[in-house]
Design a protein that fits this description.
Distance between the termini: 88 Å
Number of helices: 2
Largest sheet: none
Order of helices and strands: HH
Radius of gyration: 26 Å
Helix content: over 70%
Length: 65
């Protein structure tokens, strides 16, 4: 009888984990855009735009002298 609480706890933890997984997989992500854009994609685009800005600034400075 002493180990019974442990098994009840483990079953409860397993059920809780499964419910959390179902919520995360099917409900929470449903509200998020599914266009495939990730943070890494956004960072790469930002880095590309920053390089373009630096190139344009260099051209402006070279053309104004």
């Amino acid at each position: 009888m002493d180990a019974n609480w442990f098994f009840v706890f483990m079953i409860g933890a397993l059920v809780g984990w499964v419910l959390e997984w179902v919520y995360d997989t099917f409900l929470w992500r449903k509200d998020r855009p599914r266009d495939g854009v990730t943070n890494d994609d956004i960072r790469a685009t930002l880095a590309m735009r920053e390089r373009e800005i630096l190139e344009l600034k260099a051209r402006l400075e070279a053309g104004s002298h």
